[in-house]
Structure formats: C-alpha cells, structure tokens
Amino acid sequence: MSVPTVAYVEERAALLARPGLPGPGRRAELSQLTDGWLAQLIDAEADPKGIALAAVGGYGRRELSPGSDVDVVLVHSGRRDIAAVAERIWYPVWDSGVRLDHSVRTTAQARRVASSDLPAALGLLDARHVAGDERLTTTLRSALLDDWRRAARKRLPELLEICRERSRRHGELAFLLEPDLKEARGGLRDVVALKAVAASWVADSPHGRLEEARDRLLDVRDALHIVTGRSSDRLLLQEQDAVATTLELLDADALLRLVAAAGRTISYAADVTWRRVEQLVGEKPRRGRRRGNLPEALRRPLANGVVEQDGEAVLARDARPDRDPLLVLRSAAAAAQAGIPLALHTVERLALESPPMPVPWPPEARDHLVRLLGAGPPAVPVLEALDQVGLVERLIPDWGRVRCRPQRNPIHRFTVDRHLVEAAVHAAALTRRVGRPDLLLVGALLHDIGKGWPGDHTQAGVVVVHDVAPRLGFDARDTELLATLVRYHLLLPDTATRRDLDDPVTAESVARAVETPETLDLLHALTEADGLATGPAAWNDWKAGLVAELAERVRGLLAGSAPEPVPPLTSRQRELVEAGELAVAVEPGPHSSAVTVVATHRPDLLATVAGVLALHRLSVRGATAQMVGETAVQTWTALPDFGGPPDPAALREDIRRAVAGRLDVARRVARREAAYPPRPGVPVPPPRVQVVPDASETATVLEVRAHDQPGLLHRLATAIGAHGVDIRSARVSTLGAEAVDVFYLVGDDGCPLPLPAARELATAVRAALR
Fold first, then answer.
1. Average pLDDT over every residue of 601-613
2. Which residue range forms the structural domain that includes residue 376?
3. Has residue 386 been placed in a domain?
4. Helix, strand, coil shares, percent, the chain, to 5
5. Which DSSP helix (H) or strand (E) runs through 38?
6. Which of 120, 242, 483, 510 lies in the 20 to 30 Å Cα band around 391?
C-alpha cells in the first residue's frame, strides 16, 4: 500500500476506536479523513486537469458509518486516458480494504444515468466535491438539480411508489422486533427520499425532529457496525443488548424504544410531505386562489374553530387555542370524523399555545375524545400527529410509560401504545353491540396501560385507571366499570380456551366476576377488539367462537335486567307541569344548553322539538321524554355545532311557534338538509334497530344505535310517528359519535304493539336511517 493509504488505514482504525466520540462527530471526522486521503490520490496524478472526484450517497452527506461503502464518482471532461486514471485511484482504495462503490462519468453521461435510474439519481443529488477540478463538480451538481426540478412532477410519484413498495417488503421500523434501519418504513431510505423532495422545490419536509431522528438511527447503525464488525442494517435480537451497551442505553428494550420513536418521527414526516406532494403535483389551478390566502369558500367548517382546507383540518381564522383548552380534542375529533388529517402547522400551533385541560375534564372534552376514537382507522394518523408534538402525553400523562414500548411476544404486531390505539380502532366497529360505546372505546385505549409499570400489567392498569378515569371526568360508577374492563380484559379469552365450557362452574365463575349484562357486553367487545389489534395469531374464528359461546352462556345466567328507568322529575319540572300550559325553559351553559319543554302530549311532539333544535344548529347529546298524565316533559342537553350557545329567547319562541303549528319544522329541516348536504366522512357500521323483548309491560321498547348526525332524532321520531305510533317516553344518549336511543311506544289503543307490527316499525326506522 502507498504511504497515504497506510496512514489513512491507521488513522481510520484509531478514529473508530476512540472512546467518547459521539456518532455525528465520528461520522464527520471519518468523512473528512476520507476526503483528505482521496484528495492525496488525485493530487498524485501527473496531470490532474479535467477530472474531479465527487462523493455521493451517504458519503456525499458526510454520513459514513464504520461499515459504509465509499461512494464516489470520477467526473471528467472527456479525457481519453480516464480509464487509466481511474485505475490509479481505485487500486489504493481496494488495497486498503475499504468498500468502494465507484463510477466514471462525464456530466452528460451522469445526467443520462440519473434520468433513467431513480436510485442513482438520488445518490447523485448528494454529490459533494472532494478533490480535483471543482468547476466540474459544480457543473455536474447544478445540471443534476436542474434536471430533477424540471422532471419533478413525473419523478416524485415514481419515488413515492418505490417508497411504498419498500414499505410493503420490509414493514414499519417502529413496530418490528428485528428492524432494518435503512429499508423499513421510517428508516434511513425515507430520509433520503424526503431530502430529494425538498431538492425538487415542490414541497419541504418538517425539520428539527426529522434531523434528530435521522441522527439517532445513524448512531444505532454505527453501533451495530462496531458490534458486529460488518456492514449491516438489520438489528437482530442477539445483537441488541451489545448495541444498547455501546450506546450507553439501559437495555435492548430502551434501544428498541429509541428506534421506534425515531422511525415514527420519520414516518410522520414522510406522511406530511408526500401528502403535500400529491396535493401539488396533481393540483389544477383554481379560480380565485391566491398564494397563502384561500377564499373563504374553500374553507369548509368542520366544528367550532375548525375548518377543512385542501383536504386537511386546520384552525379557523378566529380560533384562539390559548383561550380554548378543548380545541385540541375538538380539532382531532373533527378531523378523524371527516376522515382527513390534521395539518402540521395546526398541530404545532395547538402544542405551542393550548393551555392545560381542566381537571376533571368537562363532559364536552370527554365527548370529543370518544368521537375521536369512534372514528375508527382515520383516528390513527390524527392521534399520531398529536403524539409527535407531545399532546397525547399531555392529555394522558401515563401514556409516556407505554409510548414506543416494545412487546417481546411475537404475536404482537405493534408497540404497546400503538396496540392500544389499534384496539380502540377495532372497538369503533363494535360499538353497536354495547350500551356504553364511550366506555368501550376508552376501555380499549387503556386496557394495557399498566404495561408501563413493573409487575402484573392488569393489576397496575387498574391502579392507573382509578387515577386516569376521574381526570377524564368519569364519575365513580363509570370509573369502576372501566377498572373492571382492565382487570378482566383477559378473562373471556383465557376462560374460553382453558376451561370446559360444558361445566356449569365455568360460566358461573365469569358471571360472578362481571355481575351485569352491560359489563359482559363490554368485555366481549373489548376481547374481540384486543385480539384483532394483536394479530392473526391472537384472534381467529376458533377463538372467536369459543368466546362467543362462553359469553352467551354467561348472558343466560345474567338475563332479566331491564333498561334503566327514566329519572324522576325535578322540582322545577313539577312546577312547570302544575302550571298547566306550554312552558319552555332554556339554560345556556359554557358549552351546552339545557332545554326543558312541558306541553300537552301529542304524537309528533318529540319530532317537532328535535327539528327546532336542529334548525338552531344544536346537536343533541342527551334527552329524556316522559308523561305526567297527559302532559309531556322533555329535557334536552344540546351543544352548538359552531359558535356560541343559541339565543334563549329565539329558541324558546321557535319551539312555541312549532308546537302551536305556526312553524313548519319538517319543511324547514328538509330545506336545510338539501342546502347543506352532509360531507362524506369515515365509513361507519350500519345502524342497529331492534325491539327489546320483555323490557316493559306497558310499552314496546325500541332501541336504536346509530352514528350521530344532524337531525338524527328528528328523522327517527318522524319515522316512528309516520306509523301511527305514539312515543310515550324516551331516553336519548349521544356518546361521542354514537347515538343510543331507547323509545317506549304504544299504539292507538295505548297498549304495546303486536310483535309483527313492532318488527315492521323497526324495519321502517332502519330504512329511514339509510
């Protein structure tokens, strides 16, 4: 070997063995050392004119790891002896044992290669001058960047498809037990792709956190190369402890958490960037559009303070996150329910300006959380956006203990935190099966929260839930029910697969634990959601059948409970009833309004009042309707869709006019629905309408579970009334995005409906909901 090469080999070995040198510093020094060595080889040429050596790829980015290839291009201006020159440069490198990836090109040749070979183009975009005629490198780099920018609308979609195919082949970095640091989704290849997008000038990618995540993965790769003594990007299980020790981390789990966090940051940056690329590359100019100032017509309201713009949820111009702690959850719920992402600048502004959530949470905040979880799959990217800026942990402090925590059991597909989110996503499709969809969704989100603590995770989870649930505003009964879901979330699958279902003791033991049909239904749905979120190895038709059979046997033991009775009248309601005339009381609150209506009963009264509330853009969150003699007493809790609470006087007057027959509510509601058709949202399960047998001796009980939407209750009550059926009492609940409405019905004779008539009515109501 030549003297410069021997010196380089010795200095390189000393550099890699030097203790205490951080990864970025080592990579920079290794690149600088390699630059100096290659420059000496170029300078040794008798005639160095018309040649230049450019570093490309990772070497061009000064990201040399101990096992990295040295990627270079020998650029020349057409010299005929270039082959001999190249050999004189390459042979010393080969003699050194350093892995070399080389090519020899004129500028024209390099441009042709880049135009036909996308991976080569990405490497050449990082071209950096090392030695020789710097004008050649500058000309090459300028020409390649110009070509890349001119062809961006064609090449960026091609690059996106390559990224997607790589993701399909290698999986997602954050959730793999043996991840490929370069090829997996969220790995180093994705960072290179994002850099190429930025170079195109079509769109930029998020900075700061992205660079930090890249550096963490490069540090891990450096440590992996040092531990194994070879060039490798796959972080195998048997090498993780040694890599963790090299990086001065506690253990292999700490290493995987670091890798998962970096991978998720890169994946999120990629999602944001590619979404913007797809918007811009496929976008046609629109009349009236001005850069940075979209006309109001292009901003569609989603919720109070939240609008849709360019396929993303953004804050309205007058939104004040600093004065509205509920805006974080309201924005997230609105985005997820609309099936669109939260814009990056919106998430960052919410993180920067939002004050802490009041403790305990007000009911509206809890409702927004349930609506977010109830959106199903679209909730995942929204929650990921909140997580990237630390908002999930601010809302649920214990989340930090499970964030990016690996699960060493190979049947699990995800880290603990993502598993909890996926369980809530699957639970969203099962909400029609339970009476309390809000508890199902929150229970799914928290069922493994104890895995962030030492010891048995179910016992730890119960302790955590007893702290978290009251913070979220759940009362003592609901808190205890959530704790029961966490305590027994493995009860049904463990019992069904390990006990004899024909032994009466099996069902009896489960019945003693769950105590009520309500809890059993919640546990059954949670079991299915948990299994589906875990993976195919944890949930299959055989296991589902056993759990269903066990649940059915336990349900038989617990049969006989009826729906909760309508609560008794308050003293104020009794005063209104005794007055013997139409009375409307409106009590606006900070977030919701309480509306009490007392009037002589008539079959269409519930539909009429519900229609008036819809006309005032009020969403019904809860209602009761009951009879006192021939007087109907209705109590409503409603939230404004947008803006502040309604004008009590105007609402009161419209209800009076409608009840007196001076306001055609049905026509006005139909006109409003025609003028403002609902926007497409996320796919939701079909409504469930069923007659509840033996629930009442004096009325037919019809239970409706459906996705909430404007005017839903008006449509339901109108459909019931169209069949000549009288609503004697009702219990209406809207839990997140799910309506759970129970109607007590009688026919013209004041008696329960015959079963065939009741079933026909259920069919008609189901049709009305479609």
1. 87
2. 303-395
3. yes
4. 55, 15, 30
5. helix 23-43
6. 483
Residue 639: which pLDDT band, with cuts at 50, 70 and 90?
confident
Query: Is 236 found in the same domain as 87?
Result: no
Query: Over the stretch 551-579, which tens digit does the pLDDT of each residue have?
Result: 999 998 887 544 455 567 777 778 778 77
Answer yes or no: do 119 and 177 share one domain: no
Q: Tell whether 728 and 624 lie within a shared domain.
A: yes
pLDDT tens figures, 259-288: 999 999 999 999 999 999 988 886 554 444
Domain count across the chain: 5
| Residue 541 vs residues 496, 545, 548: alpha-carbon distances, Å | 13, 6, 10
> Which residue intervals of 171-251 are DSSP H helices?
188-200, 209-228, 237-246
H runs (alpha helix) in 429-516: 437-446, 457-471, 476-487, 491-498, 504-514
pLDDT level of residue 295 (50, 70, 90 thresholds): very low
- pLDDT surpassing 80 at residue 645: no
Residues 496 and 539: beta-carbon distance below 8 Å: no
* 581 and 666 assigned to the same domain: yes
Handedness of CA 226, 230, 231, 236 (dihedral sign): negative
- Residues 426-441 as b or e (16 or more Cβ within 10 Å = b): bbbbbbbbbbbbbbbb
Considering the domain architecture, whether residues 691 and 749 belong to the same structural domain is answered as yes
Report how far apart the first and last C-alpha atoms of the chain are (Å, whole number): 81
Task: State pTM to two decimals.
Answer: 0.85
* 82-96 and 23-43 helices, crossing angle to 10°: 140
Nearest C-alpha neighbor of 619 from the set 595, 596, 638 = 638
Q: Is residue 296 part of a domain?
A: no
> Are 693 and 639 contained in the same domain?
yes
